[in-house]
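Bug: token stream looks shifted between consecutive jobs. Job 1:
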Amino acid sequence: FTGGSGQKLPTLITFTRYKRNRYLRFPWTYIGMFGDVPRPTFSVVLAKFIRVITPRGYVHVGVDVRGTGASFGNRSVDLSSAEIADFSEVLEWVKQQAWSNGRVGATGVSYDGITAAMLAAQGGLDAAGILFSPVHFAEDILVPGGVLNIGFTNTYSVFVKAQESNR
């Protein structure tokens, strides 16, 4: 999303495995009551982010990582060498676009933040805004109070498999 200004602007990239686009069905379609969602197949999280950055003169590029969402390829493991190489390829593509001024940052939370860190480690990025997790994964989610949260791990496994299978 460029915000429609027509001028060369800095860009923020978000790489995600959680589908940058998803179709919202009832009752989730009512989420628009709390702010505009660009279209019914748009990530609500990215919509909020875009609504903040584009009026401030930034372009946003949302990318489904290899083998997820609308992306091609296969996914054998998170952050494979092929997936990490894709980050630099996208970075170079963004820098060559007519709407890009060549200054590019990457951002994300959790897995998306890790992808931003991996891109930053390769060089060529002007900035990275990263939050790995807003919670302590082991203490707050996986083993709260010292008890293994099997419900979370099983549900999350099903969720990730469905996301990566485009279901």
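Job 2, same session, no restart:
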Amino acid sequence: RGHPTSIILPYPQSGDLRLCSRYPCLPLSFIMPLAWENPEAVEEALGEINRPDNTSGWLLVAYTGPDSVALTAKGSGSVDEFLPFLKDDEMQYVLMRVGGIAKDAKNKNEKVTGTRDVFIAWVGPEVGIIEKGKKKSHLGDLKAVLKPFHAELLATGKKEFTEETVKDRSAGLSGSHEIE
């Protein structure tokens, strides 16, 4: 009755461990969560970005192995500061705070600005299609740690990657949430 209990077995063709409940068996690497190599540094950087008095800042997470990531850089500036760290042959992730976002004021003569936290998935133009597919499965784990954020963007090129583009594309009514 129901599904049989899932078990972990060595797979005959390759010898790697697989989770089996019904065929086909899935490799454990397919279902294993993403590993964070320096979680304390990530937590500290998130605390710096999320301070209420902070109007800018960023952190960059990159792969250190097939299923592991680490905080590789952080700063207090904006896009121009982290753009040199983005590699054309890698997938990387940025959480940044953008200041100077216009907000509705109670008094129409008053100009009020605030901040917006933006999660950006960088897919370098030289990343292969298979690598994109494998690493896309980590997106949920990354977003669960690099939070909170108000908007999510995909960046695939540096030509239009500016602070103004991030502000524009991260707006709720923006038609495109991609930076090419």
